[in-house]
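Extended Data, panel c. Modelled sequence:
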Amino acid sequence: MQVSILCGGKSSRMQSEKGLVLYQNKPFIEHIIAAVLPISATIQLITNTNDYNYLEYPKIKDIVLDKGPIGGIYSALIHSETELNLILSCDIPLISTEILLELIQKHDNNTAISVFSDANKTHPLIGIYSKEIIPILKNVIDDNDLKMMHLLSKVRHQILYIEGIKSDFLKNINSLAELKELNTY
């Protein structure tokens, strides 16, 4: 399975490149890669910056600029050689191999997208995405309809519910306040 880590984004609330923010003296991106490697060594980074060049994985630039996660997913799927793809954001340093394996094992092949949801929200940037949605992605990009939940509503999708302590693994860190809270773990 191809793994694509979305390293784009403006990072305005974090005030620096989110994937390179340190947690336990290691950049977020390295925590994510460590969780992914037992599953797949076929990893690509979707980024328009050279900041990740120190990592050995292929870097893919957005095909269409400034289209947020939808644009990143589109670029990831276009450059993927596998039908099913694990798509992750770069701001989830607590993600674990076990949670990702649960997502893969519970994915229903009759759906185009599988994502997690917890008591607080749906997490569309921890998901399995099929290449079959490329035409739909192209349409939503052309229409500038860039909300992830709108995308989910347009395709056969599966939401896997997680509760309790497991939901901590899904936590995305978007601001300095959230980073400060994370560092108290």
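The mean pLDDT is 93. This feature is highlighted in the accompanying rendering.
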